[in-house]
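In the design runs reported in the main text, the only information available to the sequence generator was the tokenized backbone. The following block is the verbatim input for one such run; it is reproduced so that readers can re-run the procedure and compare outputs position by position.
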């Protein structure tokens, strides 16, 4: 497991004071990941109904959720975070309940005009995939 992510969530690219919006929370999400992000930023996570711009976004995604809905969610999230803020899709790791097919996030990201990075282990049961607009950074 990536030690930076497992210890303090800095791998997400969030910083102290950042407002991070959380999409599609449910009772199966990793409270450890959530707590580490809140400890790092010093802020509570805000939900998808938050009505102002944010500094970063995490989207919890599981198999069985509609791929077109994921593309729409990515577009909606990107509209509040903009091109400079980290935008992450967090999915159950392969072999875990709710793990999506390997191409689901890639395909939805492409539909939404984004590139999806290689999955990164962010906890024992969850992977994170950072998205960037086409033509932006690494």
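Verbatim output:
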């Amino acid at each position: 497991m990536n030690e930076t992510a497992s210890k303090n969530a800095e791998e997400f690219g969030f910083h102290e004071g950042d407002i991070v919006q959380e999409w599609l929370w449910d009772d199966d999400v990793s409270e450890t990941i959530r707590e580490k992000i809140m400890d790092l930023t010093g802020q509570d996570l805000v939900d998808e109904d938050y009505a102002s711009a944010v500094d970063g976004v995490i989207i919890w995604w599981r198999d069985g959720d509609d791929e077109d809905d994921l593309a729409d969610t990515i577009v909606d999230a990107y509209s509040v975070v903009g091109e400079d803020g980290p935008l992450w899709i967090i999915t159950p790791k392969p072999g875990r309940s709710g793990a999506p097919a390997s191409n689901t996030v890639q395909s939805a990201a492409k539909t939404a005009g984004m590139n999806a990075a290689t999955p990164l282990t962010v906890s024992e049961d969850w992977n994170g995939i950072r998205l960037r607009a086409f033509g932006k950074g690494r």
